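Hi,

I'm pasting everything inline rather than attaching a file, because the server keeps stripping attachments. The sequence lines come first, and each chain or strand is labelled.
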Amino acid sequence: MPIDRTQVEHIAALARISLSDDEIAVFTRQLSQILAQFDVLQTLDTAGVTPTAHVADLDSVMRADQTDDCLPAEDTLRNAPRRRGDFFQVRAVLDE
Amino acid sequence: MSEPQHPGELWQLSVAAASDLLARRAISSAELTDAYLERIAAVDGRLSAYITVTADAAREQAAAADRRIAAGNAAPLTGIPMQIKDLLSTAGVRTTCASAMLADYTPVYDATAVARLRAQDAVLLGKGNLDEFGMGSSTENSAFFPTRNPWDTARVPGGSSGGSAAAVAGGLAAFALGTDTGGSIRQPASFCGITGLKPTYGRVSRYGLVAYASSLDQIGPLARDAADCALILQAIAGHDPRDATSLPAAVPDYAAGLAATLDGEIAGLRLGVPAEYFADGMDAGVRSVVTAAIDQLAAMGADIREVSLPSTEYALACYYIIAPSECSANLARYDGVKYGYSHQGDGDMWAAMERTRQHGFGPEVKRRIMLGAFALSSGYYDAYYHKAQQVRTLIRQDFDRVFANVDALVAPVSPIVAFPLGERADDPIRMYLVDIYTLPVNIAGLPAISIPAGFTPADADTDTNTPLPVGLQLIGPRLSEPTLLQIAQAYQQTTPWHQQRPPIR
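And the predicted assembly:
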């Protein structure tokens, strides 16, 4: 199934990635080629087949509700691009 | 450094041999570590297997290991110099994932697998190059530089654990830890002529492994032979409360299992040969090497049976929907706020985030994020993601069916040998096809090992004539690592392929 430039721009917006015009052109072509490879799945009848999300064969892993040591704030913030005090600094989320 | 008291170079020793010499005090970890650091200094300019070399810390760790050995409480990997793929968190050591996004990121904690190796006082030489975030099959997708194959430096080492495979093959580490989401341990092991084990999903904790596709990712060893892989798996396997998907099953004594079958006895083991893994498109050289290896296993007494895994033809599409979908969710965390690259130009929060991701991610990572975002998006979810999950069930059932009748499967690792740099870099689909025989194993969560099985001449249309290694893949049911290691060791006791070393000096 081919996808067009408008769809690529829509996907990029969903993924929060800016793309240059060149990137949009390349991804439109390449993603269409890759999606064409997926058409083979539509030839397979999977009616009634249970989907598999995970293969660990573990259900509802439980543990005791106990606290444990966690990283100190200083370590947690060590790689922060911008910080203010003991907080990660972010740009305004809401319009002023 | 004093002259070694044994034949050969220290950096050529297997883990088991080095461990034995260390225990007998015939060599020191300081000597061994220096030998590897000198080898890295001499050779890595041509291989680029390392992103980061931690020479000073390695010497300190070697000294600590020597003290532990002297105190008489050494573990099997005490003092053994190793490389860790730069996708695994190492406290205090930059962990880049070969991405511009994390070029300056230094974790504040160790991955559990790394911590378990440190607990044995293994020596960290440095961090191995890879395809960015583990996404690729050639290590050309590294944001820093491509790694080169020690057998022919014009060729790729495979990927994504290409830096790890090149390091072990080239004698730049005694062993390495890699990760395997669709073949990223086994395929570079095959391309570089070493042994690589992808354990059962959940056998090794993924805590501290930077996530790519969480239902497929698994950590495992790259080493010179099966016996070394057993020692390393022993160290890293086991339940971890920090990874809810790690398996609670008891960890067997892998080395003892091998010792019990030291005579290489595999007579009577039933080995299945899946017809679908010998399809058109396979290099003639790979086909002849793998066929000869199967004949060898038959000569050793294995009961070879042809089997069928009919859903194999759907595995590529299944994988390239599921892995990118999980990737698009996992890599949403790179927003330029908590760690990593952060775009500092004008604009609001969303603009900064979108520019951070534009400049921080390379082309293949963007491609997979977009592919995943599409497969999960409204209107396409059922046709792609849900369908792929159903196909995952069928692929798994195929394996369950054949493992009712055979103990393990024998197959090629990849349809091709190491290819020239640049040959597939601009064609994603051709690159994806390199992993067509390794992807189904991750989809089903099974263990598999890649072992050297021989050499094929380079392509006639290239000007090099270096023989290139070909790997044999052994695939088993869940938690069958002891059986896979036993078959691999038996094969290695009767064949010379794993002892071949690339000519790079």
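Chain B touches chain A through 67 residues (CB under 8 Å).

If the labels don't parse on your end, tell me and I'll reformat.
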